[in-house]
Amino acid sequence: MDVFFIIVSVFLLLNIVLGLVRVWRGPTVADRLLTTQLFGTTSIAILLVMAGYLEELTLLNVAITFNVLAVLLVIGLVQVWKKKKGETR
Amino acid sequence: MMIKEVIAIILLVVGCFFFLAGTIGVLRFPDLFSRLHALTKADNLGLGFIAAGMAVYIASPLAALKIFFIWLFTLLASSTSCYLIARFQKEQEQSKNRKEQG
Amino acid sequence: MSILIDILLAILGVYLAMQSLLASRLSQSVFLFFAFGLALALAWVRLGAVDVAITEAAIAAGFLGVLFLDALRDFSPRDTEEQQNLTTVQNSLSRKESKSLLLPRLALVLGLGLFLLIALEAVWKIPEGGGLTAAAETLLPESGVEHPVTAVLLNFRAYDTWLEIGVILLGLLAVFAVGGIQIYRKPIAAADDPLMRQVILFFTPVLFLFGAFLLYIGKSGPGGAFQAGVLWGAIGILLHFGGIPVYSWVPRWLGHLLLTLGLVFFLLLGFLFMAAGDNLFEYPPAYAGLLILIVETLAAISIAAALTAIFANLNQMKKEQPNDTAQK
Q1: Chain A contact for B97 (CB, 8 A cutoff)
Q2: Chain C residues with CB inside 8 Å of B76's CB?
Q3: ipTM score here?
Q4: How far apart are CA C201 and CA C31, in angstroms?
Q5: How many domains, in total, are found in chain B?
Q6: First to last CA, chain B
Q7: In this structure, is the dihedral angle defined by the CA atoms of residues C190, C196, C202 and C205, taken in order, positive or negative?
Q8: Which domain covers residue B35, as residue numbers?
Q9: Are the beta carbons of B85 and A78 separated by less than 8 Å?
Q10: Of all residues in chain A, what percent carry a pLDDT higher than 90?
Q11: Where are the domains of chain C?
């Protein structure tokens, strides 16, 4: 079972590595911001799997921290860059 | 092998499949809006399966409640951020077009 | 078998650190740095340091991400004319850089390399199974808390933590030094989107509750003042985005009180017990648990206030500059 958890964790980590390609390519900032959502969700999944593998339930708190702060970046992008558009007018 | 381990393995494998689908979608789809579609739907479903699998494996009611809330918050955060990013991008493109025309 | 994850995380960490410095576009750097923060948090989990993982997750995923997005907006050109100016400025800069900055850069790299080598040697010399874990464990009953990390941070080596709170305040002072102490009365663009308002309304109490939970759980498990402070600071930033600039709403004296509360109370408590005959920052074991909880709560409030102030000032400062020049 431990081996299986490790395989799943490595697989999810490789998902993050694949997602990095979008950070390199992504033509707009919104495209790149998309990858933070991908990384965030995948990291939460890795933390859940690790919590079972290491039998360390406090890892769930790390996952919740990722969780509640994930939306901050998106609101940040929308609000910060909206003002920029207002200035040019 | 216990029955709960078998259930957990099946749920985790299904979850991994959806994660892979989401990542490939983000890489291969042609524009931002379809990428948003791939990411926010497939990844959340994948996380849901993995969360369910781990809740079954850990088998403690308190941890299961916490995992359920993790999934709930992710659903809320990513569905709203999908909408916000899409709207942001649409407004950016509109103002760009207006500039080019005028 | 688990070494597979460790190797992958190690390679990913080093790769992301290098690429976030070397990437040719600023927006690539910002999001690579975000990925670097996540990789570091996962690495801390693998090293068994859950406390650090929570802090790293909160700082890298929340605070620094928003700060960098704000900086990214200021460095991205507003229209084509400005873009041309920017590129000419950048070209002249890069030409100047290549000659005059070579020597300082070399010195910096050599100095940092030497420092790293010394640090590596110190780590190498730690005896097998050594460290101070055993010492901390034996003194744990006297500290008033059950979690060794919290015991070390807030009791055995409390002045370290006190100085760390001071460092965050120093960061705020640096922001003040650049932008000047001003109170920006002008409200920022309110959240006109109903959905965004609802998200802010939903996540504010959730952030507060989870921060309080981390603060309280700190006595028996991973969590504590810094983690709670960052999460509460995120509330301030969220409200700022939602059109409620917290710092122009509270009176000035209250803002300054909140900023210094943790630092001052921490120090006063230390001196109080020093006057009673103990060492600096040594608590009587009978009250230690309660005192630590109070100190942590006040420290978390101060950290949250400082982080909010840093962000609000940086955000407002750059925003109001174009308007000022237009008025002139």
Answers
A1: no
A2: 199, 202
A3: 0.90
A4: 27
A5: 1
A6: 70
A7: negative
A8: 3-101
A9: yes
A10: 22
A11: 1-72, 96-125, 145-328
